[in-house]
Specification:
InterPro entries: Ac_CoA_lig, ACAS_N, AMP-bd_C, AMP-binding_CS, AMP-dep_synth/lig_dom. By secondary structure, the chain is an alpha/beta fold. The protein is built from 22 helices and 30 strands. The strands form eight sheets. It has an eight-stranded mixed β-sheet, sandwiched between helices. A seven-stranded mixed β-sheet has the order 5-4-17-16-18-19-20, sandwiched between helices. Strand 24 (about 540-550) and strand 25 form a beta hairpin. Helix 4 crosses helix 5 (about 70-80), helix 6 (about 115-130) packs antiparallel against helix 7 and helix 15 crosses helix 17. The longest helix has 17 residues, at about 150-165. The radius of gyration is 25 Å and the shape is globular. The protein binds adenosine-5'-monophosphate-propyl ester. Adenosine-5'-monophosphate-propyl ester binds next to helix 13, strand 24 and strand 25.
Length: about 700
């Protein structure tokens, strides 16, 4: 028997009887951690009573089982899905210890299943064919649509049949570059149905970034749309795709087929260029195909999708997720972290271009037979009350978003919220970056009327699903803490040498074992997979995040410890932005750091040295920012360009980012030792240039 870690044993109990509901700390502005740590926000007794997990004791029992007998725990859950053939011989096998050989993780291997079948057909067979699967709310209020489970299956089958017709088969990659239309989950599910591997690219990425991903995974087909409206803007997506396809063709990767969904928008027809033979209009071909499509049964370990994400070095890497474990894990985490009930209406504001949209717009909720809202527009268009208007319109019960949106709406004032009823809301969720306690409180008190628990879910593209998350109803929350591990997850906090720390501590957050939803490799680069995630602390999965554990065992994520920054919940490597900057002919050298930003969480701060003879002008500054927008995407545009006649480097030429971070955040009295710099005088020069 493994025994429970001390931090799980010591979690606070819920009050018995009609206990206190919630005690709000007087410290609202200071955000002093000590105060936060003592601030317990309890779920109401009614909420706990009706919850899937009602008490720390119940959680502890389930958690203990999941750690002591993972095979038993997960196979019981997996048995609730349809398997054409049961896995064998083992529920899982893993080696995550690089000292013992290559990292290899398998869950439900030998099991034959299909995630699309489990999300759609299985729910329809259970009598939910007429239940709404997807609501769609367009950019303009009043634009909307919906599909029942049966209708969704029909549409998925038509597209699946079309894809098969054009030669896509099991194992082939399909790149999807679509905005948040129902066609986006439809395209993902259609790929899954026929065993094709989807690679969704967020439709805010530039042509360059899209091309990079196409070149890496060599898709048979690119699925896109002509345009998207976001707020008052119309974006010509097809033009971006055209450029990306030209760029990939130049690199020897010619894509023969581009399926274009015509999104009703105000864009004029003649603005969409058409390459005959390559470009096909979705609406012309897909509806002609049959609404029944046989399922391609796949092994639990067959790939389901690739999703590119940023690391601290080099190009974005293709995170590879497989079928069976991901299915079981996303469904189970969704169910417990949101305390899912069949009557819920669920809205996650994330785009399917990111992992949150994969696991918690498409797969997790649909596997549970949930009703999911897909929103195309911008959350503050036409005004900052839009989200709550939508909540009331669809009677949303579970609302899952990112701290950056919470902070942005908080700034607009409470009236935009309180003018709507929001009575339907039951559970709120947060993801993408640590949520600061004042934003947590506003979300809790104003949006949730002090009655909806907040699930602050900590996880990553690589983890497939939640690893540390509240289970609402089971234990009291602390504003800003992701609280405790999900079933089967053993988080450990280690020091630089990899020693596990106990009790109150802070250090690097690692996970001790595998869980069903963990990614299996980086596409085409298993070595980088091992080096990045399993070598830094041998024997563990290393998350790249820092974490503190308090006296009650609560986990407080403190942000990335590598050169990755989190901008509005979007993850980006500083190295990627630097290489976009130095691509500019006037840029000699660039160093990018993250700085605190009141809305975005982190802002992008770029130190730039220009080539000799070029003047430091506003025009150059603008063209540098434009370079990043076109190389990566608008969300990666630097917030600040700081002219740097020289960068602080060690004698061996390494840029000292520690110093740059201090200069960027104006903590000039904390520069530390600069005597090891090759030229200490550049520091003063930089400070002098701060507002040039
Ligand atoms: O730093 C952590 C932060 O987001 C990173 C993962 O980014 P990505 O792979 O793009 O996935 C985002 C959606 C899961 C993590 O390494 N992060 C995510 N959720 C939280 C968080 N930091 C603190 N609290 C969270 N709830």
């Amino acid at each position: 028997s493994v025994g429970l870690p001390r931090h799980v044993e010591s979690m606070p109990r819920l009050p018995s009887g009609n206990g206190r509901i919630s005690r709000l700390s007087a410290v609202v502005l200071g955000e002093a951690l000590a105060a936060e740590e003592n601030d317990l926000i309890f779920p109401s007794p009614e909420f706990s009573r009706d919850a899937l997990v009602s008490s720390p004791e119940q959680y502890r029992k389930m958690y203990k089982r999941s750690i002591e007998d993972p095979a038993g725990f997960w196979s019981e859950i997996a048995a609730q899905f349809y398997w054409k053939k049961r896995w064998s011989p083992d529920v899982y096998s893993e080696n995550i210890d690089v000292r013992k050989g290559p990292v290899k993780i398998e869950w439900f291997k030998g099991g034959i299943t299909n995630i699309c079948y489990n999300a759609l057909d299985r729910n329809i067979e259970a009598g939910n064919g007429d239940k709404v699967a997807l609501y769609w709310e367009g950019n303009e209020p009043g634009q909307d649509g919906q599909l029942t489970y049966a209708q969704l299956l029909d549409q998925v089958c038509q597209l699946a049949n079309y894809l098969k017709h054009v030669g896509v088969s099991k194992g082939d990659a399909v790149v999807i570059y679509l905005p948040m239309l129902m066609e986006l989950p439809i395209a993902m599910l259609a790929c899954a149905r026929i065993g094709a591997v989807h690679s969704v690219v967020f439709a805010g990425f530039s042509a360059e970034s899209l091309a990079q991903r196409i070149i890496d995974c060599k898709p048979k087909v690119v699925v896109c749309s002509n345009a998207v409206s976001r707020g008052a803007k119309v974006i010509n997506l097809k033009a971006i795709v055209d450029n990306a396809l030209a760029e990939s063709a130049n690199n020897g990767i010619a894509v023969d087929l581009c399926l274009v969904y015509e999104n009703q928008s105000t864009m004029k027809k003649e603005d969409t260029k058409w390459q005959d033979g390559r470009d096909i209009l979705w609406q012309e071909v897909v509806p002609q195909f049959p609404t029944k499509c046989p399922v391609e049964w796949v092994d639990a370990e067959d790939p389901l999708f690739l999703l590119y994400t940023s690391g601290s070095t080099g190009k974005p890497k293709g995170v590879l997720h497989t079928t069976g474990g991901y299915m079981v894990y996303t469904a189970t985490t969704f169910k417990y972290a949101f305390d899912y009930k069949p009557s819920d209406v669920y809205w996650c504001t994330a785009d399917c271009g990111w992992i949150t949209g994969h696991s918690y717009v498409t797969y997790g909720p649909l596997l549970n037979g949930a009703t999911v809202l897909v929103f195309e527009g911008a959350p503050s268009y036409p005004d900052p009350g839009r989200c709550w208007d939508i909540v009331d319109k669809y009677k949303v019960t579970l609302f899952y978003t990112a701290p950056t949106l919470v902070r942005a709406l908080m700034r607009e004032g409470d009236e935009y919220v309180t003018r709507y009823s929001r009575k339907s809301l039951r559970v709120l969720g947060s993801v993408g970056e640590p949520i600061n306690p004042s934003a947590w409180r506003w979300f809790y008190n104003v949006v949730g009327d002090s009655r909806c628990p907040i699930s602050d879910t900590w996880w990553q593209t690589e983890t497939g699903g939640f690893l540390i998350t509240p289970i609402p109803g089971a234990w009291p929350q602390k504003p800003g803490s992701a609280t405790f591990p999900f079933f089967g997850v053993q988080p450990v906090i280690v020091d630089e040498k990899g020693n596990e720390l106990e009790g109150e501590c802070s250090g690097y957050l690692c996970i001790k074992n595998s869980w069903p939803g963990i990614f299996r490799s980086l596409y085409g680069d298993h070595e980088r997979y091992e080096t990045t995630y399993f070598k830094p602390f041998a024997g563990y999965y290393f998350s790249g995040d820092g974490c503190r554990r308090d006296k009650d065992g609560y986990h407080w994520l403190t942000g990335r410890v590598d050169d990755v920054i989190n901008v509005s919940g979007h993850r980006i490597g500083t190295a990627e932005i630097e290489s976009a900057l130095v691509y500019h002919p006037h840029c000699a050298e660039a160093a990018v750091v993250g700085v605190d930003h009141p809305v975005k969480g982190q802002g992008i701060y770029a130190f730039v040295t220009l080539v000799d003879g070029v003047d430091y002008t506003d025009e150059v500054r603008k063209s540098l920012i434009l370079a990043v927008r076109t190389q990566i995407g608008a969300f990666a545009a630097p917030d600040k360009i700081h002219w740097a006649p020289g960068l602080p480097k060690t004698r061996s030429g390494k840029i000292m980012r520690r110093i740059l971070r201090k200069i960027a955040s104006k903590q000039l009295d904390e520069l530390g030792d600069i005597s090891t710099l090759a030229e200490p005088s550049v520091v003063n020069q930089l400070i002098e240039f701060t507002d040039r």
